[in-house]
Recover the amino acids of this structure.
């Protein structure tokens, strides 16, 4: 017998009962070949005031499970079985009108992709204010403005009043993510679904946001369904952990206990591949720190970092090899609109200097908005510097034009932070990866197709995806497509802007291993931009720490990690999630 639908489904509240119960959930996607199951019999229970983390690789069904709760699945997907009880009411039986009383007010949502979930033609302040008004938390005018500023401040934007006037494209990826987090928390919901809510954030702001979530849980009894690929965060922030693999739950239990003593082979591989754990092993080991068989279903063996001998050779090269990239006193000033016919200068990059020896990796790290991505765009000659010089293989980029610029871009390829924004939704995956080959007239169609299939294999994507489109892929899969496209021309220099931030740990480990192999084989040079210091320790030879447009500390990776001089660097290292948790392999 079906459950009766209440006039206001959320009026019902059962003392001591779970807030959320998912029972035998089945979700399938409609394809030309019929219905394809994506979630197959998932069950989980979330109590009031509790945080539950769902972890697993891209495509495992984590996000599909979360979106099923608020029935915001893509048009080709549908719930084919099971129930989703929220405060005792089966949400799968509610009409769209009834669900509107639940979404936002009772169940908040922080989506994974910040750029595609903020309207590009509306100011940030207007979007936050509209959410508050729609959910009955403010009245239009000064009340909505004041509360919107408070929401953004809670989400970690200290200059919230000024940021209210700006548009999404004027924010860094991490700042856009913070806006979405603020919107999700703005109505103080009973349940917050957070889908990779901190994947684009530096570790210090990540800590601020997650501390705020923990405070909200403690004070108001808000429950959190936390989707993440970061096992350090899962262990540090969630009481319970659910591990998903190929649409099923393969292991579940208390977080620390499960991660210290994983039982399922897949969970063991996840724990062994976690960057923060590998970083700890590196600190205390002079040999390879992979420490476990990380062979995936695709047969790829993953060795997370090089041996001590390899790292010593690379350290020597960073001191003796000629520079592939030299940045000298680089400055970039933007004019920010501040009212009618007025603009104010904003210095995004302030007298930055560094060099990258040929065949080595230099990492730029720092908080969101520190200027890291602006440096990347300047190096790629996508923006022009206000002053300073960028020299690539002895040639000043200021003099590079026309055919010379095209040749330079063949040798220097980017991987941007936002995989969805950098992929044309009208191109299928094969056409997307082949785009640089066509642009530079490399090979005929048959050769280009073969190269595309080779690249899909290199980044651990099934060849069947070649004819699919970006909206049919998970966030991690889209990121891998972006990496494959960057590798298509076999460049000498690769600028990677948060290139592994959206990937689960196993695929992240494979990509880092792939980058290491390509660097060794082809003598590649990497400028690696990231907020994840655990990853930095695994891949970088040298580190430049940026803050407010300036480099505040620059040294070899071992020096920065073992003997940081600046307090800001010490704070970044202390904020690495899960670094202090002792977990089993």
């Amino acid at each position: 017998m079906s459950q009766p639908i209440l006039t206001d489904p959320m009026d019902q509240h059962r003392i001591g009962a779970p807030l959320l119960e998912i029972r035998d959930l089945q979700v399938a996607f409609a394809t030309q070949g019929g219905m394809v199951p994506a979630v197959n019999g998932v069950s989980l229970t979330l109590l009031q005031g509790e945080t539950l983390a769902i972890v697993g690789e891209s495509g495992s069904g984590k996000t599909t499970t979360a979106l099923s709760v608020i029935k915001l699945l893509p048009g080709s997907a549908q719930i084919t079985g099971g129930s989703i009880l929220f405060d005792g009411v089966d949400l799968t039986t509610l009409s769209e009108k009834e669900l509107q009383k639940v979404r936002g007010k009772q169940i908040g949502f922080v989506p994974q992709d910040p750029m595609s979930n903020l309207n590009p033609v509306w100011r940030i302040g207007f979007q936050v204010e509209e959410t508050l008004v729609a959910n009955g938390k403010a009245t239009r005018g000064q009340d909505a403005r004041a509360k919107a500023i408070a929401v953004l401040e809670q989400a970690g934007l200290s200059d919230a009043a000024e940021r209210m006037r700006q548009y999404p494209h004027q924010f860094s990826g991490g700042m856009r993510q913070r806006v979405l987090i603020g919107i999700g928390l703005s109505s103080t919901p009973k349940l917050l679904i957070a889908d990779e809510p901190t994947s684009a954030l530096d570790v210090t702001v990540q800590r601020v946001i997650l501390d705020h979530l923990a405070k909200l849980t403690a004070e108001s009894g808000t429950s959190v369904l936390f989707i993440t690929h970061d096992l350090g965060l899962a262990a540090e922030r969630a009481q319970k952990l659910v591990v998903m693999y190929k649409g099923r739950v393969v292991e579940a239990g208390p977080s620390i206990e499960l991660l210290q003593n994983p039982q399922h082979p897949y969970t063991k591989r996840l724990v062994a591949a976690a960057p923060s754990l590998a970083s700890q092993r590196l600190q205390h080991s002079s040999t390879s720190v992979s420490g476990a068989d990380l062979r995936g279903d695709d047969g790829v063996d993953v060795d997370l970092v090089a041996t001590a001998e390899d790292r010593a050779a690379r350290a020597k090269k960073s001191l003796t090899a000629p520079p592939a990239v030299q940045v000298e006193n680089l400055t970039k000033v933007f004019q920010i609109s501040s009212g009618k016919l007025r603009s104010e200068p904003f210095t995004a990059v302030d007298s930055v200097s560094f060099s990258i020896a040929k065949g080595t990796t230099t990492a730029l790290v720092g908080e969101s908005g520190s200027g890291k991505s602006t440096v990347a765009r300047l190096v790629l000659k996508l923006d022009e510097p206000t002053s300073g010089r960028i020299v690539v293989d002895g040639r000043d980029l200021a003099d590079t034009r026309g055919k010379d610029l095209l040749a330079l871009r063949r040798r220097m390829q980017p991987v941007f932070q936002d995989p969805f924004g950098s992929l044309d939704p009208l191109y299928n995956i094969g056409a997307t990866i082949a785009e640089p080959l066509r642009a530079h007239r490399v090979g005929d169609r048959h050769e280009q197709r073969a190269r595309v299939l080779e690249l899909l294999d290199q980044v651990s994507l099934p060849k069947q995806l070649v004819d699919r489109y970006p909206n049919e892929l998970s966030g991690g899969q889209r990121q891998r497509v972006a990496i494959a496209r960057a590798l298509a021309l076999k460049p000498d220099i690769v600028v990677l802007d948060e290139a592994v931030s959206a990937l689960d740990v196993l695929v992240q480990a494979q990509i880092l291993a792939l980058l290491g192999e390509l660097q060794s084989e082809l003598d590649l040079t990497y400028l690696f931009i990231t907020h994840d210091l655990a990853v930095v320790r695994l891949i970088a030879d040298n580190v430049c720490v940026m803050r407010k447009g300036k480099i505040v500390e620059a040294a070899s990776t071992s020096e920065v990690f073992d003997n940081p001089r600046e307090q800001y660097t010490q704070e970044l290292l202390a904020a690495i999630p899960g670094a202090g948790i002792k977990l089993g392999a």
User: Anything to note?
Assistant: The two ends are 47 Å apart (CA to CA). Confidence is low (pLDDT under 50) at residues 1-15, 284-307. Residues 203-220 form the longest helix (18 residues).
